[in-house]
Design brief:
16% strand, alpha/beta, 554 residues, globular, binds ligand NA7, 8-stranded mixed beta sheet, 5-stranded parallel beta sheet, single chain
Length: 554
């Protein structure tokens, strides 16, 4: 099949209905699949999407070099047999344009567009206890009533630009990687400043450096990054997956992070130093996040982790010719993996270019911007344009930006003032008939998002069937179940090295954000089992009310 061949796309609607059974916020991979499943139940469902196209993350993050760091054979829907058999990815790790084409293909193939309202940002969602309906308000003031609201709003969807002094005076162009223009940005002949060295910057810097006249990278914290070894998809690899897709997808669902990879069942300190190096070298040569599967205790044993961390530092020292730059790029003071591991194509090599310079802003933070550039450490740097690769208000930022009110007009953002509290990362006590897809307290960002999205959408679909079969109309997480879950999420995180790092997993990148470990680190497979157990025990932990039926909804 040619990937560009799509059925005739239906148009996006413009006139919002007054009421629906299910209102989905977001039309990324979660929103698209939700819409499909809700329709399958015979429910009226719409998705409201702030962007002018579908695709979520892959709609917004169109910076040069944007690429998925999960292999495409795995970062794709597993629930559409024909689609997964027919779709051909061109590279091992797909670039953003191809993933966005895939999202659009899905929207057309499953005729989803007719229920997706674009350019429609949700500003409020209020639950009315008397009618058991949510009143959802858009930024333009339109209102829709819904029995169920599902927040498919993404984990990294509120881009953040730090509040730099004088930023508004800068006369050149500014860009944020998470909100990149739709028109081609030409860097040739331009002096570019890039702030940040997270995943986005690490992908963008090599591509921009190949085009710009000069690039200055402002680094606060260096990151551990593993070469992707990306390349064209071979027919053999494509066939290997497609021949065995059902079994491999099952393995992914049962795995620790939703990715099928070979895992070493030994601890790093259980083998000789020579064997350790041999394993790290093999994993480094193979590339990608499977480096973290080198040994089974890298996330929990500081000594083990240090051997992997030091191995990567040594690779950086080997690649980067200037010793001082190499030392600056070598991450220290935190364990590999405890900040999101990065996957790159020629990132460290880029610092060997004559037109690239690294500036440390850990010890001398950026002081201010002016008309021509910025000042740090007493030096002025002049630019034609500046790129903010400064990340996101992760996991809670987008939800807290919406005025969400549950029972007794309780505000979600107030309830979450000291950190998010959810049951299974799916539901919040006091907010009936509202679900979160990959919400805080679920594996989410620690997993292959596709696997976690599908699991949540399927869970919600099954839950609605359970309700319909029993004439139940309202579902809500119980307070005890939620508190126990929050405790469990914390307990599991505390057993690992993760909470020790100042990461966005911990909310550490946003001034004033509570330091709470946001995702659930118990593992995708274990989490799935917990959810199955909840479902098979009558959705224990959830409370139901009977007074209205799904059949009468809307
Ligand atoms: P990240 O990973 O949050 O990276 C943001 C980067 O910006 C990181 O290096 C930050 O340094 C840096 N930053 C943020 N604020 C500042 C200020 N004020 N001064 C200097 N540097 C700053 O976001 P990405 O977009 O790269 O990646 C997000 C996820 O998207 C990624 O993990 C993948 O899952 C996909 P810090 O580390 O906070 O010191």
């Amino acid at each position: 099949m040619s990937n560009s061949a799509t059925s005739a796309p239906s148009a996006h609607p413009t006139k919002l209905p007054h009421q629906v059974d299910v209102l989905v916020v977001g039309a990324g991979f979660a929103g698209l699949y939700l819409l499909h499943r809700m329709r399958g139940l015979g429910l009226s469902a719409i998705a409201l999407e702030a962007a002018s196209g579908v695709g979520g993350t892959w709609y917004w993050n169109r910076y040069p070099g944007a690429r998925c760091d999960v292999e495409s054979m795995q970062y794709s829907y597993s629930v559409f047999d024909d689609l997964q058999d027919e779709w051909c990815w061109s590279e091992l790790y797909s670039g953003q344009p191809e993933i966005l084409r895939y999202a659009n293909h899905v929207a057309d193939r499953y005729d989803l567009r007719r229920d997706i309202f674009l350019n429609t940002r949700v500003s409020a969602a209020h639950f009315a206890a008397d009618t058991h309906r949510w009143q959802v308000t858009t930024e333009s003031g339109a209102k829709v009533r819904a029995q169920f609201v599902v927040m498919a709003t993404g984990c990294l969807s509120t881009a953040r630009t730090p509040d730099f002094d004088g930023l508004e005076t800068f006369a050149g162009d500014t860009y944020h990687t998470g909100n990149w223009p739709h028109t081609q940005v030409d860097f040739s002949g331009r002096r570019v400043g890039i702030i940040g060295t997270g995943s986005s910057a690490i992908q963008a810097i090599p591509v921009i450096a190949a085009e710009a006249s000069h690039v200055t990278v402002f680094q606060r914290t260096p990151n551990y990054s593993i070469p992707s070894r990306n390349g064209p998809m071979s027919d053999a690899y494509d066939k290997q997956w497609k021949d065995d897709y059902a079994a491999l997808r099952t393995l992914a669902r049962q795995s620790n992070n939703g990715i099928v990879m070979e895992r070493n069942e030994h601890g790093a300190m259980d083998v000789s130093p020579e064997e350790r190096v041999r394993v790290y070298e093999a994993r480094w040569a193979a590339g990608g996040t499977q480096f973290m599967g080198s040994f089974n205790d890298l996330a929990i044993n500081a000594d083990s982790n240090e051997t992997a961390s030091e191995f990567v530092r040594d690779q950086i020292r080997e690649i980067v010719k200037d010793a001082a730059t190499a030392e600056l790029l070598a991450p220290k003071g935190y364990a590999i993996g405890t900040k999101r591991i990065c996957v790159d194509t020629q990132y460290f090599e880029t610092f060997n270019r004559d037109n690239v310079r690294l500036v440390d802003v850990r010890n001398a933070p950026i002081e201010r911007f002016d008309e021509t550039g910025l000042v740090t450490g007493g030096d002025h740097y002049a630019f034609d344009c500046i790129i903010f690769a400064t990340g996101f208000d992760a996991m809670t930022g987008t939800l807290n930006a919406i005025d969400i009110r549950g029972r007794d007009a309780a505000e979600l953002r107030e309830r979450w003032e000291a950190g998010p509290r959810t049951y299974l990362g799916l539901s919040v006590a006091g907010f009936p008939n509202m679900f979160l897809i990959t919400g805080p307290g679920s594996p989410s960002v620690l997993s292959n998002m596709m696997v976690s999205i599908e699991q949540h959408v399927d869970f919600i679909t099954d839950l609605l069937v359970h309700m319909r079969d029993r004439d139940l109309a309202v579902v809500e997480a119980g307070t005890d179940a939620q508190e126990n879950w929050v405790q469990h999420v914390n307990d599991v995180a505390q057993k690992t090295l993760y909470p020790r790092a100042a990461s966005w997993y911990m909310g550490a990148n946003i001034p004033g954000k509570p330091r709470v470990f946001l995702p659930y680190i118990g593992g995708v497979g274990k989490y799935r089992k917990i959810c199955i157990d909840v479902a098979t025990n009558g959705y224990k932990g959830f409370a139901f009310e009977e007074d209205r039926t799904l059949a009468r909804a809307g």
